[in-house]
Structures are given as structure tokens and as C-alpha cells.
Structure of ABM domain-containing protein:
Amino acid sequence: MIVVKVTYTVKPGFVQQNMDNIKSFMSDFKKMDTKNFKYVSYLCEDGKTFVHLSHYQNEHIQKELLQVPSFLSFQKQRDDSALEGLPKVEVMNVAASSHDFFDD
């Protein structure tokens, strides 16, 4: 399993557009076989910092999701929006969980 956490902060004027872009790629993700991945996006208390937490069963599904056109558009618009600092990408390992993520 691959677990990735991405944290970034947008300018206040880009928050709504970023939310719309997230909704767009999430809509496309929901049309896919979601038993192989879990993807959640959060808006933090400051109202402009976003956290994306993704769990992929394997590298194949990770690469597939990262090539979805609406996701690529989201990334480009986010990166072109003059972020408040660089996105922080963390690869993590599950220490424990209350449930199984994927049936192997």
C-alpha cells in the first residue's frame, strides 16, 4: 500500500476555485473502481490550507489516478495560483488501522 499526504496553502482569492477543481477530479475518481484507492481532501481551520490524503493499493492505481485529466488540471491551476509556499509531500506507512483498506 502507498500512502501520500500533500499539504499546501492557497491565496484566499483562490480557495473557491481550488474547491471547485477538487470537486471536479473527485467526481471523476468516483467513476473509477474505488476499491483500489481511497482519496480524501480536507480544508483546514485557517480556510486556505488543504490536505490531501491518498491510499493506493499499488503503484499501478496511483499512476492511473495521477493521469486523470481533471486531476492534472487541478494540479496545474493550483501550482499556477501563486501558492503560499511549496506543497509539502509526505509518503507515510500505516502503523495501525481500525479497518482493512483493501482486500488482497
About this structure: The CA atoms of residues 24 and 70 lie 6 Å apart. The radius of gyration is 14 Å.
